[in-house]
Structures are given as structure tokens and as C-alpha cells.
Amino acid sequence: MSYLLSFCLTWFEQPSGLKQTLLLSLVSLPPLLHSVYQFHLLSLVINYLMIPFFSLIIMPLAIGGGILYPLFPGLGAVVNAGLILFHRGLAALANLPGTITFGKVPAWVAVSLVLLTMVTWEKRGAVKWLVLGYVVTFVWLHFPLQGEVTFVDIGQGDCIIIREPFNRRVMMIDTGGKLNFQTEGWKKRTNSATDKATSTSLNYLKSEGIDHLDAVWLSHSDADHIGYLPTVLTSMRVERLYVPAGMEKMTKFTKRLPSNTRTQIIPITSQAPGFGGLTILHPFTPGEATNDDSVVLAGEFGGKRFVFTGDLPQAGELAVLAHYPNLRATVVKLGHHGSKTSSSPTFLKQVGARVGIISAGRNNRYGHPNQETLTTLAQLHIQTYSTQTQGMITYRYNSRGGHFITHNTPEQLQLSN
After folding, report:
1. What pLDDT was estimated at residue 179?
2. Which are the contacts of 33, defined by CB distance < 8 A and separation ≥ 6?
3. Which of 382, 373, 338 is nearest to 359 (CA)?
4. What was the pLDDT predicted at 120?
5. To 5 degrees, how large is the angle CA 258–CA 260–CA 266?
6. How far is residue 401's CA from residue 417's CA, in Å, rounded to a whole number?
């Protein structure tokens, strides 16, 4: 970015003031959208004001404070406090309304937009083509022809993103989360528990140009399924939050809700209506939001039937079969991260599963997925994908069908009818 802006400053005839800031902001926008996927509408004004303020005030204060600190520590502390206040002010401005989540502009498109901006710099008549380039790119990113079911590599937890074609509806099943174990003080890490969600599921959504979720479904109350809920609710506008009936009253859930959340919280059982093409199969009655009460969802995407089982144990799987003897599923999100306590051979065989998805962390302390489960899958000739080894797993589909894409080990599986 610095080299690009330096080149533009030296190569082209430069206007001054606000016009120069505008041109430099425009030429830097495509690489910015390629790397961070969004921009703030106030950035132009802030950049225009900050350039003289930074060079005339901030830089002299920082240099002077550093030089004088050994002689006048009190003065250095005052300067440092002022710089911290300045930084907090910028952060407050960044949190003001006006952020546009554009989506990840492909590298070749970003290069094309930079070149087109440079042409516009010299030939004002090309402005309409630059505007058209941004409009076409925005529409292409925000209204994709294909939908997807994505199993996020969230670590030892579950997080699934469902996005319909044209982004008609976008939903998340579980948020993932970090399991907290008692650790000696010297072993504790300073990384925030929100880092994983910020760098994976939320980052991915923003790269797709998505800044809201129509629904978040929480399967049960374990931290590895709902631990990142505060991050999701503060980073995205969430319309509906579905939880197993009984969980809405639990402290371990309510304490994760931001005080200013406007999300509608909806307790559910199998008698509740579904949403977004998902049918609720379990729990049958209100409970305590344990593994036994896991929400089980079913839906059809690209002509293939999916079942998402949370951490439901084998007894629960058989109970679901008893209630829905005609249940069929091409793809099953295996329960409890591939533990032997889930994935009953009877359940998998009766629903006709052809693909099993395991969401588990690398080198996890539980030994997930369990060898007994892997043996069952092999005996039933079920194609298995795991976030542990293959990273994010995406089923991309349209009206004619779909295929799986794995991200760590590039592989595609076409599912025939």
C-alpha cells in the first residue's frame, strides 16, 4: 500500500488538499477491500484531518516526550496519557455507524480497480467506468448465484454457516467457543477467547460481504458450542437466536448476552416451527440444555438432505429415529465431534448417510474423533470429512446439485442423485 501511494504521489500531477486526499483514498481502496473487506464512510474526512494533525502535533509530541522522559518523567507520562487518549478517540470514531462490509475483492479485480482509478486520475471521463466497476463487484459479492453450507474450522467446537443463493438468508448453527480448564498462572495465555471467532467465522462472513445473520441456532449450553456468542452478537446484527427450551433461563447463557442486545431469543422444542429451510427434530420437551437436550436440525440444500446433531448421544439419536422413522439424510454432522458416545451405527444406516462431517480441534485432549466412530463410518462406506485435518469444509450448491470443497487439502466430492 505504501509503495502504491508513493508511486501515485511521484508519478502523477498532484492536486492539493481535500482532492489529493480523495484521490489517494480511492487508489488505496481496492487493496484495502482485498485484505480487510470493509471500509468506513468517515475515513475520507478523518484522513484529511489526521494528516496535518499527525505531522504537526502527534509526531512532535511523541518524539519530544521520548527525548525528555529521562529528564522529566512526569512530562513523559502526560504525553503518553495524551497519546493513549488520542488512540481511544480514533477507536471510538471507528465504532461509529458507517462501516460498509463490501466483501473480499479478488486480487485481479483489485488490480483492475487500481489501474482504472489511475486512468480516472488523468482522464475525468473514466469516472463512470470506475463507478460501474465497483457496482458490478459489489453486486457480484453480495448476491452470489450459489449457496453454501460451511463447517468452520473453529477448533474443538462446532460452528456451521448456512448461506442461501443471493444471500436470501444467512444463518449460523453454534458459534464455537473455548473450553476453560483450570490452569496454573504461569501457563495462562494472554490471547482473548474471542480471537478464534474473529479470525475464522466472522472474518469469513465479512469476506463474503455479510454483516448480519438472520438466525443463530444454539444446540446446547456447552462452552465449545456457545462460547463465542458474545463476539458474534457484538460483531454482527443477529435477528433471531434459537435455543433449546429451558436454556433461555440459565445463567451460563444469559451472562453471555450483551446488555444492549436487540436479538429476539426464541426457546424451541420439536413442536416449534422451523426457519430458513431448517426443521427442528429435537429436543422433544424443555430441558437443561445438556448434550441429551441438543437441538437437532434437518434441511435440504442443493437437493441433498442434511442433519445437524449437536452433541446428541446415541440414545438420543435412536429416540429421533423412533419419532421420525422416515428420516433420511445424505449428509450428517456427526454428534459430539466424532466421540464414540454418538454416531450410532443404527442411526447412520437407517438415515442413509453418505457423508459424515466431524468438527474437532487438532490434538484435542479427548482424542476426538474416536477410532470406534471412524471404524463405524468405514464399515458403512460413509465418506468422512474432518475440520481437524481438512480445515474449513464447504458444500457449495445451486438448483442442480452441489459439491464439497475442503480448504487445507484441496478435494472435491460431487454428490450424484
Report:
1. 73
2. 39, 102, 103, 104, 105, 110
3. 338
4. 80
5. 70
6. 8
Query: pTM score, two decimals?
Result: 0.85
**What's the pLDDT tens digit per position in 321-373?**
999 999 999 999 999 999 999 999 999 999 999 999 999 999 888 889 999 99
Q: Which three cell numbers stand for residue 80?
A: 503518553
Q: Using CA atoms, how far apart are residues 310 and 295, in angstroms rounded to an integer? A: 6
**89-105 pLDDT, tens digit each:** 777 766 777 788 999 99
d(CA 154, CA 361): 8
Q: Measuring CA to CA, which residue among 200, 199, 228 is closest to residue 216?
A: 228
- State which amino acid sits at residue 320: V
Which residues is 305 bridged to in the sheet? 300
pLDDT, mean over the chain: 87
Three-class SS string for the chain?
Answer: CHHHHHHHHHHCCCCCCHHHHHHHHHHHHHHHHHHCCEEECCHHHHHHHHHHHHHHHHHHHHHHHHHHCCCCHHHHHHHHHHHHHHHHHHHHHHCCCCEEECCCCCHHHHHHHHHHHHHHHHCHHHHHHHHHHHHHHHHHHHCCCCEEEEECCCCCCCEEEEECHHHCCEEEEEECCCCCCCCCHHHCCCCCCCHHHHHCHHHHHHHCCCCEEEEEECCCCCHHHHCCHHHHHHHCEEEEEEEECCHHHCHHHHCCCCCCCCCEEEEECCCCCCECCEEEEECCCCCCCCHHHCCEEEEEECCEEEEECCCCCHHHHHHHHHHCCCCCCCEEECHHHHCCCCCCHHHHHHHCCCEEEECCCCCCCCCCCCHHHHHHHHHCCCEEEEHHHHCCEEEEEECCEEEEEECCCCEEEECCC
